[in-house]
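Lab notebook, page 48
Experiment: co-folding of the full assembly
Goal: obtain a model of how the components sit together before planning crosslinking
Operator: M.T.
Materials (sequences as entered):
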Amino acid sequence: MKQTLWTRPIYYIIAFAFATISLYPIVLMVLSSFKPSAEIFMNPLSFPKSFSLDTYRRLLEEVPFGTYFFNSVFVSVVSVLLILVTTSLAAFYIARYTFWWNNILFFFFLMGMMIPIKLGIVPLFILMKDLGLLNSLWSLIFMYTAGGIPLSILILTGFFRTMPVELEEAARMDGASDLRILWSVLIPLIRPALGTVMIINFISSWNDFFFPLIFITDEMKKTLPVGMLSLFGEYSADWGTLFAGLTLSSLPMIILFFVASKQFMDGLTAGAVK
Amino acid sequence: MQIETNTPIVKQKKTRNWKRWAIHLFPIPALLIFSIFIVYPLVAALSYSFYDWNGITRGAFVGLANFIDLFTLQPFSNMFWNAAKNNVVYFAVQMVVQNGIAFVLAFIIYKRIKGSEFLKIAYFLPRLLSVIVVGFLWKLILNPNFGALNVILGEFGMESLQKAWLGDPKTALMAIILVNCWFGIGFAMLIFLAGLQSIPKELVEAAKLDGANGANVITKIILPLMVPSIMIMTVLTFIQSFEAFELVYAMQGSQGEPYYSTDLLAVFFYRLAFGGSAAGDSTAVGLGSALAVVLFLFIATCTALLLKYMQKKQVEM
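Observation: model returned without errors.
Model output:
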């Protein structure tokens, strides 16, 4: 395309102006977390005069932040593991065997991607109550596992289909069982896809707020996002501590992102682009 | 299966049969979890909508009464139409603002400006925050007295624009939608960028050789080839906006304050199912289930139509 003199500068202005809009609130959140509330009210935009960790100390002392954090880690890690195990097995079956019901099974799972599961929340609440899972982290683990299954199966099935069949046939000749073929031959080969599945599901279970809002009332069973809710109820005037809470609960995801930003971006868009 | 009489063959068949049978266990765990926690509740929600409910105990079968009440019984029907209207605005503004800006940004990055790796990360970073963090963060920024937005407007001498953004029914819904756009632009930008990058360079080159100008290349070549990613974002934005709940709940509570001006269908649904509706604190599970069914049928039908339309468009090209 013909480049006119003025298009480039305009591109740069738009691109960097929007980068500011994107980043500024996050920077503000982190900077404000080092300020006492009085300073936030007087100079909300300036750099903190001195970096005080007082807000963080109060947060950790007065709010069961460590418990929320541990609960979030536990729920996310266990559901991601369950998703990896159940969906590798199912996707292997769907991609590698040709029974007449395999396509039906595949579309049955894919249906879950178009259905807003929130709409089933009343029966889910009653189901969890009947199973004795209300106020238990397992209610969340089952929800995140179930919710992550459709997209993960879609991604893994696609990957299994690209693997050459000869590899498995060779292993089968040597007398390897299906499980051994999956574990020793295919799993190492589809590691990138497993990484994608891991990241997508980790983000969504770490950040979810809806299911713990409804299933969890016990303070000691709350995950970070619902923990935030009680923090905001109690500290509505203590902005410094609120900002510290927001920063601290977002930090693990942001750190992980900087370790593997490309995988994160590929992971989140994997579902849409296929 | 035929019964074999020759012994060695029978033995061999048996082990093979066992292996064949074992493979069918593979999809069972995923199938079980998916059916119990996703499929069953959605099917159950449908049946719940035909019953009368007191609290969360099921009463008599009432046929379509819940659906009729939802559309005619006050104050529910007013709330329903108000939330539905807000939802349409939510979807429309998000489509235009979020996806429009995302498209422009994707195009700029596609033109290979310096710093594009940094820009991609900058745009995407908000998407990593929990929606509840986004809601609370912006609630603090939009605070009428100390919030950063009004302070910035003041610094630039635009005091006349300072507002109680979330407290005024005229601006509250728009403020929430724009926060949602802030959250979603990075993701939409990546989808559009992937679409742009999949366009064969030769096509653009050939058009330029034939004397097409910039505007022509965009409207005649790039846009038509972008139809798949535009449709994907349309479907995703549609589904997301019609089940939007968290942001409103975090910023304006379950009543969609002020005066239900930020109420959405999913927020209304939450009130019906878990209390806090205008008709006292009691829950209205029957009505809630009816609303869930209506919403579900609406989303499923529209998504199916959009996808079908998308497939047709792709075939034409």
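Interpretation: Chain A has one domain: 51-272.
Next step: discuss with group before ordering constructs.
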